[in-house]
Each structure stands twice: as structure tokens, then as C-alpha cells.
Design brief:
Largest sheet: 3 strands, mixed
Distance between the termini: 51 Å
Strand content: 5-15%
Strand order of the largest sheet: 1-2-3
Radius of gyration: 26 Å
Order of helices and strands: HHHHHHHEEHEH
CATH superfamily of the largest domain: Cation efflux protein transmembrane domain
Number of helices: 9
Shape: elongated
Number of strands: 3
CATH topology of the largest domain: Alpha-lytic protease prodomain-like
Mean pLDDT: 80
CATH class of the largest domain: Mainly Alpha
Low-confidence stretches: none
Length: 328
Amino acid sequence: MTASGQNLKFQQIITFTSVILFGIKISAWYMTGSVSILTDALESTVNIFTAFLGLYSLYLSAKPRDENHPYGHGKIEFISAAIEGVLISVAGLIIVYEAIINLRHPHALQQLDFGILLISATAAVNYLVGFWAVRLGGRNKSPALVSSGKHLQSDTYSTVGIIVGLLLIRITGIAWLDSAVALLFAGIIMVMGYGIIRSSLAGIMDEADEELLREIVAVLQENRQENWIDLHNLRVIKYGSVLHLDCHLTAPWYFNVHQAHEQVDKLGRLVRDNFGDNVELFVHTDGCLPFSCKICSKQDCPVRQSDFVARIEWTVGNISADNKHRID
């Protein structure tokens, strides 16, 4: 199964899980009368909406490129993740509102033991599904699946807070603790929502992913070939689970088209072996110039004009710059 297919299948699991857990939380609220459990259930309505939104975005992103979308449909995942981040933040604000209302008008809770048991089960399921979603989304480069997983984990944190509050109320009989703990975890939820919004907007704006660039440069540096005299103007853009990579490869100027293309193929295989098959590689080949001799370690060069001096180590800085490497 392709990475896009795996993402879509797991998002279906998330959607089904969200509906079931919402029903369990509503039942727990009905039995206990806890406003904290009610706010947790209200947050689960966001889970359901975003689960279906994520499902639709992954369906679109899995579609092949077409005439109107020559780079594919992967950007929809960033849009979906941004909306999900906003909804997570809104859910946090709702929890804050309901907690403050409950502080002003506290009421007795019922059947706490059974209610705690039910929402504890939902917390465990949410966290496990969220953990697997983040792990799979990270492996398949899917921001929509990662944001869905983080959303489920944030739901877990709020549920844990509610469980702690209910246990303290059960032990101490202090009713306002229910709202106090809910307020604390509402803050955690809103911070996580902001993080998802920030990373989604970065993807929409094609912001450079420094961590990914460092990983790519490290692989290229470790496996560089003697015919790769330098590599520059490297740019990486993510379209959902697809990685689009542009660069300029400097090869010996006397190579014919077939020989230059062979070096491009080697570069492409190296990137795909390390970052998956969902990689689009566009490589422009340049011929070396006289000043390139000083950084070229090619042993059998028939037209060398000066001695080899030193090999320039590739870094994110010099491999991203739009100029050939040289030693002055």
C-alpha cells in the first residue's frame, strides 16, 4: 500500500474512533452531571468534525496531479491542519468558559466512580490512536495525519486533567477543583492548537524546514560522489506527503548528456532510498569551471587546470546558496 493509502486508511480509523468516544463521553456526562466531562465531550465534537475534514483532505491529497494541479493536491493537508488547529484552540476557549461558569455555580456530582472509569477508557484509546497517527504521519510526511494525531493527544491531556479533578473531588469533596483542573488543561490545549496553526501556515507559505534540510544535506554529504563537484541552490518544498526537491549539480564539463543524466539518477536514488518514494527531484546540471579544479577530487580528470586543494563540506548554508562553490 502506498503512503497516501496508508494515511487515508488510518484517518478512517480516527474518524470511527472519534464518533464512538464522543458517545461514551456524552453517556458519562449524563450519568455524572460533571461540567468537566461535558466540556470534554464538546471538544470531541471538534474531533469528529476535524476527523471528517482530515479524511477528505487525505482523499484529495492522494489524487494524482492533473492539469489544474500540476504539483498534486498535497497542499490541502496544510489547510486542513490549519483549520483543525483553530478548532482545537476554540475548544480550549469553550472549556475555559464552561469552567468559569461552573466555578460561579457549582453543583453536586453523581456516579463519579463509573464516570471516571468511562472517560479513563476514552483517554487511553485517544492517546494510543493519536500516538500511532503522529508516528505514521511523520513517517509518511503527512501534516494532516500528524495534526489529527496531535489533536487526539491534546484531547487525552484534557481528559486526564478532568480525571484528576474528579478524583480530587471524590477524595476531598471540594467541588471547585473540577473547574480549576479543567482551566489548566484548557491552556495546554490552546498552546497545542497554536503550534498546529503555526506549522500549517509554514507549510502553506513554503517556509524552509531547517530540520529536514539538515537531514538531506547530511545524507548527501555522507554519500557524495567524485563526479558531484558541487551541489547548490537546493530547495525543498512539501506538498502533503510528497517531497519536492530542486537543486543544481555541478559535474565535469566534458560529460555528455547521458553521463550527466547518470549522475542525476544516482542522486535521485540516494534521496529516495533515504526519504521514501514520494519524492519529486528536479536537478539542473552545470558544467564545472576552471575555479572548480581546486575543490574537485576527481582522480582521472583529463583536463585539470590546477591542483586539488580541499573539498568543501556541504552545509545547509552553502548548499542552499545560488552559486557554485569555490576556494578563492
